[in-house]
């Protein structure tokens, strides 16, 4: 386990801080942070994201409604679940959040519940959960990841405990949630596929609408309805996800910025912080990459 810190825990609570941890060999990441000023730009993760609010209130918008997670509550974001986030109280909030790749979640759940084999991925109906057992299971996982002296066996056990605790609170499965796509959804999917293949391209709305096979307005409306983000936000998110991968692999920051379509290093850094709450440098340290 490698650990990187965006900053040390401050003596003055009014200052934002964040620490980031990343598993060496699996899609598992953790952030422990206090935010009073920072505001997340609307974004999603390509992983399950489970957070526990430890102090204060975190306010956010998700699935068309305003939400709030107060002390002891659990946040549950499905993969690609758009949301933002900011302090819901004057004194800010402290929380821990784990990002667990869907393939790892399915592997651990299948092993825990069936002794191996594939399982249908669970999905969460509500992004805020009141469950002390699940919260404590997540906190034990966080503790094992943050403690350098904990064994890999202990971390595996804590991960299984947390995954099972959260899966029991899921409302539906991915198999149930996937209906036949409507014409509007197909338009959005064509636009998404184009953006994912050409995320570094500086395209305009006309070009994307032609790829989707409709007008600019119809494309925009269908995309937001399907994915909860504007096409430009989705494109930027694709760039940032690829930038994370490049940084983990040791690509210099300036080179990564150019490769994924950002104007320069500072442009990438600004958006990286707005989406992920930490700097690219802190993320590189968490990934064990020398600066």
Automatic annotation (TrEMBL):
<feature type="domain" description="HTH araC/xylS-type">
    <location>
        <begin position="189"/>
        <end position="286"/>
    </location>
</feature>
<protein>
    <submittedName>
        <fullName>AraC family transcriptional regulator</fullName>
    </submittedName>
</protein>
<dbReference type="Pfam" id="PF02311">
    <property type="entry name" value="AraC_binding"/>
</dbReference>
<dbReference type="InterPro" id="IPR009057">
    <property type="entry name" value="Homeodomain-like_sf"/>
</dbReference>
<keyword id="KW-0238">DNA-binding</keyword>
<keyword id="KW-0804">Transcription</keyword>
<keyword id="KW-0805">Transcription regulation</keyword>
<dbReference type="InterPro" id="IPR037923">
    <property type="entry name" value="HTH-like"/>
</dbReference>
<dbReference type="InterPro" id="IPR018060">
    <property type="entry name" value="HTH_AraC"/>
</dbReference>
<dbReference type="InterPro" id="IPR050204">
    <property type="entry name" value="AraC_XylS_family_regulators"/>
</dbReference>
<dbReference type="InterPro" id="IPR003313">
    <property type="entry name" value="AraC-bd"/>
</dbReference>
<dbReference type="Pfam" id="PF12833">
    <property type="entry name" value="HTH_18"/>
</dbReference>
